[in-house]
Every structure is written in structure tokens, then in C-alpha cells.
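Hello Y.,

Per our agreement to keep a running log of every chain we model this quarter, I'm adding this entry. I've kept the format consistent with earlier entries: sequence first, then predicted structure.
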Amino acid sequence: MGKVDAPVVMISYSEFQCPFCGKFARDTQPTLVKKYVDSGVLRIEWRDFPYLGQESMTAALAGRAAAKQGGFWAFHDALYHNQQPVNAGKLTPQYLGSVADKAGLDGAKLVTDMKRPELTEAVNADAREGQSIGVTGTPAFIINGQPIIGAQPTEVFEKAIEDAAKR
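Predicted structure for the entry above:
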């Protein structure tokens, strides 16, 4: 999300079941988008890190399928808006398809696309990348090389973004 040539890049290792990722998505990210993404200072890049079980992988595949329709962030927001309890059996392809429909996407196409092997490989590649740099849980962020671990207060992100923009 954001301009390709934004001077500050925040890589977000996240997963759709993580309650702290949900808190960040609902409480902090909208402020960062309004203040920094919309002004061209920040680009946010999502990385899948589905470590809480099979439902995490299912949701990650749905996110990838939403991205194929150009609607990753709309799906992201809709899924976090009504975040389900961890491993409660709710994140089925059918449920995720209904979330996609509510986000303005084609839910049936999303469910079909979730089965594409290249989406599984892309999710696994993100997880391997995160593990290779020491990510052990979510959310984990890297802002122009500076790690921020956990759903920190908005001010922590604002300071890191502003410091990176100055550099």
C-alpha cells in the first residue's frame, strides 16, 4: 500500500488470526495510512507469517487470492474488522469467501483461487523470509531496517517513520 517510490518502507510480518495484528490493523494502521501513506511518505508491505495453525494458512491463502483480484487491503480490513477467535474453526474457505464478498470482491473466485499452488508457495516464502531474519511471532515490523516488535503505541511507529524520513 502506498507509492512504490515512498522514502520509507514498513514491512509488516502479520497473520490474520493474531489478536495483536488485529489491534494494529484497526487502531494504528489507519492513522499511519492517513498521515504517511496518503502523503507519499510511507509504503506498507504485508508479509504472511501464518504460525498459529491451519486456519492461519487458510486465511493467508485467502489474502493472496484477494490480492489476485486487486483487493488485498479491502479484504484485510474486512477480515480484521470482524476478527474471529484463534483456531475456533471459523476461518473456512466459505467464511473467507463471504468476507471477500462483503469487501466488494468475488468470493467464489477467491475460494477457487485459494487452491492455487503458487499462492501456497508465496505464503511459505514469506514465512521463510521472516524466519531467516529472526521473526518468531506477529506482528513484527521493519521500518527502513529498524525492527519494531509487537503492536506498539501509534507514537512508536510515528517516531520511527519520521526518523527514517529524515534519513
